[in-house]
Design a protein that fits this description.
Layout (H helix, E strand, L loop, with lengths): L7 E3 L15 E6 L4 E6 L5 E6 L8 E4 L5 E5 L4 E6 L4 E7 L5 E5 L2 E6 L4 E5 L11 E2 L9 E2 L5 E5 L4 E5 L8 E2 L10 E6 L2 E6 L4 E6 L2 E7 L2 H4 L6 E2 L3 E2 L3 E6 L4 E6 L5 E5 L11 E3 L2 E6 L4 E6 L4 E7 L8 E5 L2 E5 L5 E5 L5 E5 L97 E5 L2 E5 L10 E5 L6 E3 L10 E5 L10 E5 L5 E3 L16 E6 L6 E7 L9 E6 L2 E5 L3 E5 L5 E11 L2 E12 L3 E4 L10 E4 L9 E5 L6 E14 L6 E10 L2 E6 L22
Parallel strand pairs: 17-22
Antiparallel strand pairs: 1-8, 2-3, 3-4, 5-6, 6-7, 7-8, 9-10, 10-11, 11-12, 13-14, 14-15, 15-16, 17-18, 18-19, 19-20, 20-47, 21-23, 23-24, 24-25, 25-34, 26-27, 27-28, 28-29, 30-31, 31-32, 32-33, 34-35, 35-38, 36-39, 37-38, 39-40, 41-42, 42-45, 43-44, 43-46, 46-47, 48-51, 49-50, 51-52, 52-53
Length: 716
């Protein structure tokens, strides 16, 4: 493992003949075979610029483009370079250790050593270290993220915490799970720029704040009980929805981190090698590393739709969302794709060389660089330029005999060949069943979405023969189901109200056909009829007589249910109640208590409402019984005429109204006119300072008996 210490040198200079004009809506994609990074236009998929990455061929690399600069890290050698988009060159370079994480956001950039549990802030322009590495204790660390403000969020699974680094400085660790977790236990995600952590062992998803945990959502058992290390969560999400996938079972939950609603669906198990999912619009894209395709789940149709072919070859596909577009790249292959929110796919040919580049004129070009595209990975460059290239065009132009041909020298406009109408596939002839009833086929496996006191079930209709209708199975006893039956033409949705928040329910849909045949779908992922409650509202407080306690009341969140419980922290500890009130006792007067009230149910915990309570009861009271006898009433620094000093006095005969804070015992005094005796003193606010006056000259109800007054609390 290399150290987090770097040395910097200039590694590239000079300009290419073409002036780079990179699209504002675009992204950088790496290619390990050519040792390059290609910039592609997000609207067309065209490559509009390339940068040679010196010494980075055939190594896995990390590219960070969410901060002030575009940085590339060779994960094997630890070499870090900065891309200059204006010159299409790699301008700066520093050498660090291997196996590091590169993370950037805003104007901040970091290298994280997961094994040594260290964080090194770096200069995103010069690529050099800024300050000494910061130690987080025992590793390994989970995958870190940096939000748009540059705050780094580092999961420390061994401690069950996430450590923020605001402005590059270490903050207080936030407790998010149990101690002793592995590196994959805590997974960080930026959901619309907000830090979210998934505890794969605890089965929760929590929204983080600098001060601690906000909303926390409980994942269904199909996810939380998945084998260790098999739960996949993306490091960023374009919106509030974070997809969580159990790789082996194909069960998936979409967590809305704003509302707490969970949408549960099933992709199906089998021989797929699922990768980390990404959500964009109404679709969820799941890479299948076994064949280089994307599995597409449409939440509106509640069904799996036509897959997207990326490379068509075994390989690891990486997905990320940028500028509202989904980018999919396999750095070991020529082709990548970019998909917009409506599902339209543009292909990106990273090996295209007829594009601006910072490569010097005499610099060696990658194999097959003849001013057009390189040959496919694993093939040798041809001796002569082919008459009809086999590479598809940038707008998914088919290859083969129907592809438009280019001139052998790559110049001029390509000739458009005579287009032939593609032969449509014929439907296989159906055998004569001799009057046999048509096959009854089940509807698609439903998806279930949790709501406040409700579960909504959606499904894809039965293919082939149209049924007479659909019925829902699995509703809890006593639940209200709407509708009772779905007709053959939909809408293909049921709504179930009822059931216990503490339980999970699984549903199936049965299709009925003419002649009494039925076909039943698979069952949904178990789902709760509730969502995590929001924060309690309108927290108010009052004091019992004499203080030393706080009576809290609040309003339940709008989405609270009968199982919602409230936790009050602060005061002398923590208490939990099902009521919307709590009483805190045994407190000290004249102190400020920071209290929080949080709501939770079986679906998770909502945000908390904080309130600062000053446990004091100051009173405006007159000085009284102050005879005009030439003797003023003294204001002392202590409740005594024998200790402390005199702050001031109230002139004889004067009866001003003063602010009285509390009462204490002090030296006994005697009223110089009436002969009353008392050792009670009143703490008052006097000219911006705190002073004491004997209660003998105060209009409280108990001073003549020498006891404390119920009007003014005792000092603690």
């Amino acid at each position: 493992m290399g150290a987090l210490v770097g040395t910097s040198v200039v590694v590239g200079s000079g300009k290419a003949g073409a002036v780079p004009d990179l699209s504002d809506i675009g992204a950088w994609l790496t290619s390990s075979r050519t040792g390059e990074a290609a910039h592609a236009n997000g609207l067309t998929g065209d490559v509009d610029g390339k940068v040679k990455l010196p010494g980075m061929g055939d190594h896995p690399v990390s590219l960070s483009q969410d901060g002030k600069a575009v940085l590339v890290l060779d994960e094997k050698t630890g070499k870090l370079v900065r891309i200059d988009p204006s010159q299409l060159t790699a301008e700066q370079s520093s050498r660090y250790g291997s196996g590091l994480q590169l993370v950037s956001g805003g104007s901040y950039a970091y290298l994280v050593d997961p094994v040594e549990a260290q964080v090194q802030r770096i200069d995103p322009v010069r690529t050099t270290p800024l300050g000494a590495p910061m130690d987080l204790g025992a590793g390994p660390l989970g995958r870190a993220v940096a939000d748009p403000k540059g705050t780094l969020w580092v999961p420390v699974p061994g401690e069950g915490t996430v450590v923020p680094f605001p402005r590059g400085k270490r903050g207080d660790a936030i407790k998010v799970g149990a101690k002793g977790g592995k590196a994959s236990t805590l997974v960080m995600t930026l959901a619309d720029g907000r830090p979210v952590v998934t505890d794969t062992e605890g089965g929760t998803v929590a929204v983080l704040k600098r001060t601690g945990v906000g909303l926390r959502f409980q994942l269904p058992s199909a996810i939380s009980k998945a084998p260790a290390g098999s739960v996949l969560v993306p490091s960023s999400a374009a919106g509030d929805v974070v997809p969580v996938l159990a790789r082996e079972s194909g069960r998936m939950t979409l967590v809305d981190t704003r509302t707490g609603s969970l949408l549960n669906a099933s992709l199906g198990a089998g021989s797929h090698a699922y990768g980390t999912p990404q959500a964009l619009g109404s679709k969820v894209y799941v890479p299948d590393h076994s064949d280089g395709t994307l599995k597409v789940y449409d939440t509106e149709a509640a069904a799996i739709t036509e897959p997207v072919k990326v490379t068509g070859k075994r390989g690891k596909l990486s997905l990320f969302v940028r500028d509202g577009l989904l980018w999919v790249n396999d750095e070991d292959n020529e082709t990548a794709v970019v998909i917009n929110s409506s599902g339209h796919v543009n292909r990106v040919h990273k090996y295209d060389t007829d594009v601006p580049s910072g490569r010097k004129p005499r610099e060696d070009a990658p194999s097959g660089d003849d001013g057009k595209r390189d040959p496919a990975p694993g093939q040798d460059a041809p001796d002569a330029a082919p008459q009809g290239p086999s590479n598809p065009g940038r707008d998914e132009t088919p290859s083969g005999p129907d592809a438009p041909a280019r001139k052998p020298d790559g110049g001029g406009e390509p000739k458009e060949p005579e287009r032939k109408e593609p032969e449509r596939p014929r439907k296989p002839e159906q055998p004569d069943r001799g009057g046999e009833k048509p096959e009854a086929r089940p509807p698609g496996t439903p998806q279930a979405q949790s709501g406040a006191g409700v579960i909504r079930i959606s499904f894809a209709p039965s293919p082939g023969v149209k049924p007479t209708g659909y019925r829902l199975k699995g509703a809890p006893p006593g639940a209200k189901m709407k509708p009772e039956k779905v007709g053959p033409d939909g809408p293909f949705t049921f709504e179930v109200k009822g059931g216990s928040c503490a339980r999970q329910y699984s549903f199936s849909v049965e299709a009925g056909f003419a002649g009494g045949q039925t076909a039943e779908s698979g069952r949904t992922v178990p789902t709760r009829p509730c969502v995590a409650p929001a924060a309690p509202q309108k927290v108010e407080y009052a004091f019992p007589q004499g203080g030393r306690g706080i009576n809290l009341t609040w309003q339940a969140p709008a989405n609270a249910d009968g199982g919602t419980r409230y936790t009050v922290t602060g005061g002398k500890g923590t208490q939990t109640t099902n009521a919307t009130k709590a009483r805190l006792t045994g407190l000290a007067n004249n102190r400020t208590y920071n209290l929080t009230v949080a709501a939770a149910n079986a679906a998770g915990s909502g945000g908390s409402t904080a309130v600062a309570v000053n446990l004091s009861n100051p009173k405006k009271i007159e000085i009284t019984d102050n005879a005009d006898d030439g003797e003023e009433v003294g204001i002392r620094t202590k409740p005594s005429t024998k200790e402390g000093t005199r702050l001031g006095y109230v002139p004889a005969g004067a009866t001003p109204t003063l602010t009285f804070v509390c009462q204490v015992r002090g030296t006994p005094e005697v009223h110089d006119t009436y002969g009353w005796k008392s050792d009670v003193w009143d703490r008052i606010e006097w000219e911006g300072r705190t002073g004491y006056v004997s209660d003998l000259w105060v209009a409280t109800s108990k001073h003549r008996e020498g006891d404390f007054s119920p009007e003014v609390w005792q000092c603690d």
